[in-house]
Each structure stands twice: as C-alpha cells, then as structure tokens.
C-alpha cells in the first residue's frame, strides 16, 4: 500500500482517497507509527500529510530518519513537505509570510517531474506559516510562491518530493495530476486498484473467511449494507440470507427497492420481517426524540434477534455481515481488529452478545468506492445512488407523535420532494434532503373557499462531504416552488412548506 501518515489535519483521508483515484491502494496510518511498523507494511510509497504544528514546536510530530534511508519513495505535503525537507537537511523557517487559501504557484526551471508542462502559474491551495527556504542537498526546486521560496522540490534519484500546497483539495486544479505523477512516474507504482480488482479481491477474501459456513446480513435499505450483502452473495451464494426489517418508518418505495430490485439484481435469499405494528405500538404517545430513538433501537434489536433465532434453528449461521466503511475504521483507531462501536451502526445498533463472527467486506473502502463496487455488482442506481437515511427513519422526522396518520402525511410529502429533486437533476449536488413534518404545529391557511388549519412541512436540503459539517443547499427557486405547490395540493393536511436555511453547526442535519 501507499501509506498516508496523518499529521493531524483533516486532510489525510482525503489524500488517501485521491491516491486511490489514481488507482493505487492507500491506507491512513497515525503519525505515531514507528519506522519499523511502517516498513513492516512493505509500503510502495509514503505520503506525509499536512498538520497544524510547526516543525520546530516542542512535541511536534516528527519522522524517523530511518524512513528516508529505507529506499521508499516519499512525498511530503504542507507540514509533511517541511518535515521531509528538514529531515533531508534542508532549511525551514518562520518567514513571517503566511499564505492561506488560493495561491499563485510558479514553476521554477523545467518544473521537474511533478510540474513539467503544467501552467507556469497555477492556482493551488495553501495553508502555512513556516516555509522551506532551502531545499535539501541533491534536490531541485520545482515551484515557488510569494510566501514559500521552495513550494516544490524533488530528488528523482532517491524518489523524494515535497509540495507546500495541498494537491488533494479541489481548489488545487492540477493537484490530482501532481499526485498521479508522484505515484506513477516518481515512485513507479503501477495503477492496479480498480473496481473490478476490488470486487475480485473481496470476493476471494470473503470466500476464504466463511469457508462452507453460512452468513446473515441485515439490510437497512441503505447503500452500505446492500453492497456488503451483494459482495457476500457473490462469494457464498445461497449460504447468505439477508434480513430486512420493515419497521413502518421507511420512505415510499423502500421496501419494494429491497424486495424487488435488490433481489432481482443479486438473487439473494431475503427474509422480510413485517414489524410495522409492533413499532407503532411501541411509539404510541411518544414525542421526545431521545426516547423515540431508544424505542426504535430496542425494538429493532428484538426483531432482529428473533429473525436470527428463527434462521439459526434452520441451519448453522455463524457469520454476520456488516457494512463498516474505511472512515469508521480510521476514526476508531485504524487497527486490524474488528468490532468497534460504530461497526454495529449499520444495522441499527445490534447488541454485543450476538454470537457471530463479523464479516466486513467494506472496511477498506471509501463511500465512493462502495458505490462503484455496487454498480460493478449490478445493483440498480436507485440503491447505489441513495442518499444517507437515518436508521430510525421517518420516526425522527416527525416532530410530535409518530402514528399511522403522521407517517402517511410525511411519506407522501417526502416522495414528492424526492421526485422533484431527482427530476431537476439535483441528486448529486445534495448530500441529503430530510423532509420533516411538524405534527405538533398548526397554522392557518386558505385553500379554495375555506380556511385551513394544517401542518407545515420543512425542507432541509444540505450539502456536505461527510455529514460532520454541512451547509444548506441553495436550491433553485423553481424547484422549491414545484415542491411546495405539489405538496400543498397533494397532501390535504399540509398547508405550508418552509425551507431550513441553517448550516451545521449550529443546526444538526436531522431535526431530532
Ligand atoms: P445529524 O442530524 O446528527 O446527522 O447532523 C448526521 C448524519 O447522520 C444521519 N443520522 C443517523 N443515521 N442512525 C443513522 O444510521 C441515526 O440514529 C441517525 N441520526 C442521524 C443523518 O441522516 C445525517 O446523514
């Protein structure tokens, strides 16, 4: 793998994703890893990420000089650029000129391998206080900016390079090309990380792990559990059984998507448990968000456990498939071990005492890779392109009591909003668009000749990279108008549609 050493900025995972976009497998490793630990992974190259420290600060994370003697190609980015330069004998100084944001980077000389043939002036994203003022002996300076005399250097012989700017961010338009050149041209790595190779590799690993055993996969209707299930199905065929719990808090068409589209694409064994009544009974009279979540989580576990006992009575199901993704693995310490808190997230919080061995075929993959794998496995775009949807479903999008009637109102309004957003081609632009029913609120309206006293529907379109932060999406007025008109016409209980224009923070994406 290419190892991305994480020096504590938010960029390490992004770098790893970009490396994989260049079809090279990469992993994020903590900057506290020792040289021996890193070399034991037999890295094809090492990338030193950016970070908030100054290389001179007390306790600043460093790098073992053993790494530069090991013959492994190294690329330093931002802080990593300074650290590499310093380790190789260059000079880093606090010049008093800081650069932040879009910066003009000039090619020096021929530009070396990384910058040759690119525009002599290119825009790149910078964020630094200190600068490399003297490149290490044996290397050439390839780029420079007003605030960084050495904005790029390389030593092609020893396969070392550094750039002060952030090639991984979209604000550096040539950044991906620079990364690609480092990986392919300087480090000499062959691009082999392709979707079909991921599928082959995972199918082989799963088959090895499960042997002739049987596995259960809980489907949530979301992308991750569907792709995980499809991969395992590819590996062990009808020794996999998928369990889908219909808790009645699903959106319009979701059950059909699973029962018809997923099954016809994969041929998987599917057990649907209809638990709608049970959930409605348990939620009767409850309005507190936390209480709702607890009830839904608890009921989910009970239903799943029952399904699991029923299955186990028929055969020996030893394995449980989970759709854990790579960012969860990195965030929970990145180790090889399984079973962290988040790994149970996808099936709605399964209890720890379930006696299963976990199968986690997505634990090396980023979300975009999961989607591509899904398409490669023949899953329909309706499943693979799905936006995130919370496990507690519509239950936490009804402010007030969840009952048959409020669910029906919200389901209809939500279907209209989704239909119009899709028709306007906005699905890619929007991270997700919760539609929320304020069942506890009423306002006066007028419709036809009469006064109405109905409920508001809130539209909450957000743009985001990872749901940790989000901005409200500036939807075109015409689309908003169509949604509003249709909802107020087609859902009699609703006489008002309002737009949530709050970023996260301070607002969360969901209302409960
Ligand atoms: P918030 O509302 O915290 O949501 O900004 C962040 C992201 O998480 C989703 N979400 C959930 N997903 N179970 C889930 O599986 C939950 O209980 C849950 N609550 C929020 C939300 O849709 C958004 O994508």
From TrEMBL:
Pathway: Purine metabolism; GMP biosynthesis; GMP from XMP (L-Gln route): step 1/1. The keyword Glycosyltransferase does not apply. Its EC number is 6.3.5.2. ATP binds at residues 220-226. Residues 193-386 form the GMPS ATP-PPase domain. One of its GO terms (molecular function) is ATP binding. Keywords: ATP-binding, Glutamine amidotransferase, GMP biosynthesis, Ligase, Nucleotide-binding, Purine biosynthesis. It holds the Pfam family GATase. It is an enzyme of class 6 (ligase). GO terms for cellular component: cytosol. The active site is at residues 78, 166, 168. InterPro entries: Class_I_gatase-like (IPR029062), GATASE (IPR017926), GMP_synth_C (IPR001674), GMP_synth_GATase (IPR004739), GMP_synthase (IPR022955), GMPS_ATP_PPase_dom (IPR025777), NAD/GMP_synthase (IPR022310), Rossmann-like_a/b/a_fold (IPR014729). It catalyses: XMP + L-glutamine + ATP + H2O = GMP + L-glutamate + AMP + diphosphate + 2 H(+). The keyword Nucleus does not apply. Homodimer. Catalyzes the synthesis of GMP from XMP. This is GMP synthase [glutamine-hydrolyzing]. It comes from Amycolatopsis sulphurea. The gene is guaA.
